[in-house]
Amino acid sequence: xxxxDGEETYVGKAIPRREDPRFLTGRGRYLDDRNLPGxxxxxxxxxxxxxxxVLDIDVRPALEVPGVVRVLTATDxxxxxxxxxxxxxxxxxxAELPGQSAPxxxxxxxxxxxxxxxxxxxxxxxxxxxxTPDTAADGAEAVAVSYRQLEATVLxxxxxxxxxxxxxxGFPGNVPFRTRYAGGDAEAAFASAPHRLxxxxxxxxxxxxxxxPRGVLASYDTHQEILDVWISTQRPxxxxxxxxQVLGLPEHRIxxxxxxxxxxxxxxxPMYPDEVVVAFAAKLLGRPVKWVxxxxxxxxxxxxxxxxxxxxxVAFDDEGVISAIRGRVLGNMGAYLYPNxxxxxxxxxxxxxxxxxxxSSIDVEMVGVFTNTTPTGPYRGAGRPEATYYTERLxxxxxxxxxxxxxxxxxxxxxxxxxxPWHTPTGLDYDSGDYAKALQVALDxxxxxxxxxxxxxxxxxxxxxxxxxxxxIGGVTPSAIAPMEGSPGLWESAQIKxxxxxxxxxxxxxxxxxxxxxxxxxxxxxxxxxxxxDDITIVYGDTETSPFxxxxxxxRSAAVAGTAVAMACRKVVDKAKRRVASLLExxxxxxxxxxxxxxxxxxxxxxMSFAEVAQKALMLMKPLDDGEEPGLDATAYFDxxxxxxxxxxxxxxxxxxxxxxxxxxxAFVAVDDCGTVINPLxxxxxxxxxxxxxxxxALYERVVxxxxxxxxxxxxxxYAMPTARRLPAVRTANVCSPTPVNLLGVKGIGExxxxxxxxxxxxxxxxALRPIGVRDLDMPLTPDRVWAAIEQARSAVRxx
Length: 800
Prior knowledge:
It is a single chain. Helix content is 28%, strand content 24%. The protein is an alpha+beta fold. The strands form seven sheets. It has a seven-stranded mixed beta sheet with strand order 3-5-1-12-9-10-11. Strands 7-15-14-13-8 form a five-stranded mixed beta sheet. A four-stranded mixed beta sheet has the order 18-26-27-28, with helices on both faces. Helix 11 packs across helix 12 (406-413), helix 11 (384-402) runs parallel beside helix 20 and helix 16 packs parallel to helix 17. Keywords: Molybdenum, Oxidoreductase. InterPro entries: Ald_Oxase/Xan_DH_a/b, Ald_Oxase/Xan_DH_a/b_sf, Ald_Oxase/xanthine_DH-like, AldOxase/xan_DH_MoCoBD1, AldOxase/xan_DH_MoCoBD2, AldOxase/xan_DH_Mopterin-bd_sf. Residues 25-151 form the Aldehyde oxidase/xanthine dehydrogenase a/b hammerhead domain.
């Protein structure tokens, strides 16, 4: 892109990521790359039962292992460590919000180590601290735990059934919260609708499975009374707050650094019990303590994602126009309500059920349920993929019920571009979007009409085409909206330091972990300051060197932090113009910004380079005007007035082998509208990664438990992550509807791929199978599951 004067701009340019050379050459510095002199190593003893009373923990055998320094259990921590606080939680009694009721009892405390009862396999019971990792592991193996096994529940529908074991006292039915989204008049809509359709839709449990598992390296300076923590996290400043609250330390005496983070996908957003214990051990023992999660631990102890069961009914007319949705969604919260898990189902799945459609009414209850499984939390999309899956499946079912093309049903129901902003029955205000245009681009790219013609052949091939449109919340969470959701407002800030050389360092409170922050934020600043991209350095991930911020999640970094960068740059430009005007004895109105500098309008001979201005702003040769300060440094804060709402349509062509049930994706197109695209190359990479995870959920991945709560997918031998060769080639395209919410017009792209892809794949497979009588399938669509459905349909045709 170029300016009217021919100067090249950086926003919109596909610049390779700055981060790539160090990552691709093995020079990234992750948690396990860090070590401190004299450090100890931690290894956790975890519950081997899903539900049991802990009768005794005998640590004496562990203490006899040479090299073991200390073993800590809950009794060593109870007086020293507070429970882990919630980021967002159901309202307290008497402080109910619309649609949100208070829990029946105080929420169960999340303690760093389990005490009298364990509630999931993998719950931390004790930690062994030793001189080497192997010694710590040997010590943990030597700890003897005596249990009395209790009845366990794994499935949400079993957990809420009469007579189910109560996981936490005061929570009959194992329900910690209920949130109802009711807008319009659903009862009247259903009463007057010519057609109704009910479906039970399952969004099964999966694992974020990041490349770099969690880890902590903590040390405590007893002289300065400073706790120093390196942790693989998405939210360094938030982690500092949590460490302070749990350990009883003032935040100014805690430093948290993230370094390079090898992926997160939402799993590194909360504070975990084991992370707190490592920091406590370092402070207690006066030596650095390091813990790096093993892959099996990661599968057992790091939060899982999705795991919802929806019973939904849709009302529609003869033309397929949908008027209302009603029903209930059960969310499996696992054994505890983790610090940020409440918002996934309550604050994201429920509000987004209307998706891109004009339905006037909704009445859906979101119900959290305790089970004897690993706690769940946000996983790429965090409630948005679930909502999209339910609604897009229902739209296809409506089309099938009426014998209509699902594409045409979507067109008849879309909110139109000219109707924006659009107020949904769940209370959201969509900012912008052209859903019909995104659909058409996807249809053209996938060759929709040709696929439909191919389906008419008589060669016995089972070919299907599926589409899925989506709307996602991004830019979370404006303070104007946050109180209504029971959470704090999540603004962001940017601090710009201008060196005398004209080089610029920008510090942020976000924390990149694969998004390309060092590249995209520099592109924004280079355009705003009119200086070379290479003159800008981006700093984040350390509470000592970056301003307070809420971190990177929820498709918020570009929209919120990126806007703060642009605003801070404007302040720098305004200061520079005032300084130049003073030096050239001109008015500020006469000073214009040109490539790399400033000049009196229309007088190139007066040009001063940005470096000259930066130096003269510090090395004062004359008194500053009243109200002016030396230098060009600036800080800006941005608290958006509303969410941003990215949207798009994904389309998939799939062929099913009728003899084996194997699904092959032969074409996949992702059309996304994320507003202004800062870097097309990075945006495309984000979509590719998200689609890979969405396809993985649709076809391969699934966390499985036995009836007694024992995990059956506790290694990569059992958990079926697809390799690159099993994933489809993905074509991408963009539709651009800039948001009015921020000055960049940016919405967000980090989670879109995981939102639209899963229902597109499932709809394609069901489209292929529907002609032979298969109407419904639960994910993942593995060959055995698909083959069984085909055989059942064939048997129904053959008869007894």
